[in-house]
Amino acid sequence: IELDSSLYTFLSQRISENVLLINQDIMKVSWDEIPSFTKVVANLPFQISSPLTFKLLETRFEKAVLIYQKEFADRMIAEPGSKDYSRLSVGIAYKAACKIHKDIPSSAFSPPPKVTSSLIELIPFKNPLFHVIDESFFFEVTKQLFTHRRKQIKTILKQSKTLPYSENLKYKTQRVEQLSPQEFGLLSNQLYHLMQSR
């Protein structure tokens, strides 16, 4: 799938007949429009790294080998409490096993970018690492909480206009950046039950 028309034309004259080349924006392509696939190999445009990664994780594939900006790759595998830990780290941990194989210097590309890249292997779990009642709600909870990553959970929830709060919540005195992905799942489930009971 290649967006650039000139590169698409260049490639179409050089690839074998058994390769399907699509001249579209990957973010606008529906998976129903293309044949089923099990492997993904891509050097991603860095500006769509996050939305494309989560779009990929909505599909059934066995393995992806992808190139990301190093800073983004570091956030994908970051541990709780680290400066790189983010909602991306939590979302990836929930959906897939992720490994950085090597860093790639800018000199490996033409023209060279201003950043270092990383080669990532992403293998989706057959089932998510932990149970959440509602996936979209879980991702919304992590998104809202990480906008105030250094605050205590209870402080954020008390100020939230869309998420509930209860004195009985687990982890309410912990800071967002300290919660493990599994704890985000448990908290999300608690908040979901609270929402349903109101």
Descriptive overview:
It is a single chain. The chain has 198 residues and is α+β, with helices and mostly antiparallel strands. The chain contains seven helices and four strands. It has helices spanning 5-12, 49-56, 70-76, 87-95, 135-146, 153-159, 181-197, and strands spanning 39-43, 63-69, 96-104, 117-124. Strands 1-2-4-3 form a four-stranded mixed sheet. Helix 5 packs across helix 7. It is elongated.
Q: In percent terms, what proportion of residues is strand?
A: 5-15%
**Secondary structure tally, helices:** 7
Strand order of the largest sheet: 1-2-4-3
How would you sum up the major sheet?
4 strands, mixed
Order of helices and strands: HEHEHHEEHHH
Q: Structural class of the helices, strands and pairings? A: alpha+beta
Instruction: Return Rg in Å.
Output: 20 Å
**Which percent range fits the helix content?**
25-40%
Can you count the beta strands? 4
Oligomer: single chain
- Write down the overall mean pLDDT: 94
| N-to-C span | 46 Å
**Low-pLDDT segments:** none
Label the overall shape.
elongated
